[in-house]
Amino acid sequence: MSIPTTTTTTTAARTPLHVTAEVLSVKKVGAYHHLTLVAPGIPERFRPGMFVAVSVGGEVAQSRLARRSFWIHRVKPVGGYGATIELVVEAVGVGTRWLTGLAPGARVEMTGPLGRPFALPQEPVACLLVGEGYAAAPLFPLAERLRERGCAVTLVVAGADEAHLLSALEARRSARAVTVVTADGSVGSRGRVADVLDEVLTRSGAEVVYAAAPLGTLHAVAVAAEAHGAWSQTAVEQPLTCGTGLCQGCAVPVVGEDGVARLVRACVDGPVFRGDRVRWVELIGEEP
Question: Which residues contact 179 (CB under 8 A, 6 or more apart)?
């Protein structure tokens, strides 16, 4: 199936900036921290699906040069500061603990926005957005853009438990219909995203499916979308050492438009890829 799409991304929007960002606030919500930062120029270049690379300090800086990449969850105006960006961070290592421990007024070095964003339908179509854990962050600004284009938006939000559901209440304001899935059954349906895909795809009549989730879930979404004749886009999250393509450390196996298998870089050739172009079994080593 072919859906005409556009990224609406100008050359200026594709040009990343290197800025010193200021932390305005750090708010703990469930298992995640939401960081609001002033990052001059980055909000204006942002498109849903793009990310930033942040230089982390503290103990990490003493041992090695370290950068961490994070999805941009939201761009919003804050009085007196103009447009700001919001990142969602799960504090699981030294670098992320350092970042989430920053106080308002702290400054961090940041590069962005980086990567290729989600492509948007040129005409109003039914769209299904599937997000799991903190990786669901880029789907919320995407839902807003799709609604602006007159698209009917259905959303699946998933997590290990209630604490790992990202912005579940906001999701209900962002979509026509929302399905919540948790592995432990604490909220919504119990199980995996794959368990609800067929039913949601049938009910929504989605022609385009967007997904931002762990690799196994992305694979399941791509397979289900193809089975339903839908066109899918998947935000592939790989370890990004540099975020700019220089280190070649975020290879993703794909099949090109010419039918030739090749390796591309998640950070500059992605992170958003057509679901039917990724060689999922080679990437994750298993069937969905």
Answer: 154, 155, 156, 157, 188, 189, 196, 200
Q: Do 10-114 and 117-236 have matching folds?
A: no
Question: Averaged over 167-184, what is the pLDDT?
Answer: 87
Q: Which one of 1.20.58.630, 3.50.30.20, 2.40.340.10, 3.40.50.80 gives the CATH number of domain 117-236?
A: 3.40.50.80
Contacts of 148 (CB under 8 A, 6+ apart): none
Cα-based distances in Å from 138 to 47, 80, 86, 197: 9, 25, 10, 20
- pTM (predicted TM-score): 0.91
Distant-in-sequence, close-in-space partners of 125: CB < 8 Å, separation ≥ 6: 3, 151, 152, 206, 207, 208
Alpha carbon 83 to its chain centroid, in Å, reads 20
Chain-centre distance for alpha carbon 126? 20
Q: Is 176 helix (H, G, I), strand (E, B) or coil?
A: coil
- Would you say 28 and 219 are in contact if contact means Cβ atoms under 8 Å apart? no
Task: Please say whether the structural domain 10-114 has been given the CATH code 2.40.30.10.
Answer: yes
Per-position b or e across 205-215, b if 16+ CB within 10 A of its CB: ebbbbbbbbeb
DSSP 3-state of 119: coil
Tens digits of residue pLDDT in 44-80 = 999 999 999 999 875 545 444 568 899 999 999 998 8
Alpha-carbon distance 209 to 129, whole Å?
6
Query: How far apart are alpha carbons 208 and 1 in whole angstroms?
Result: 10
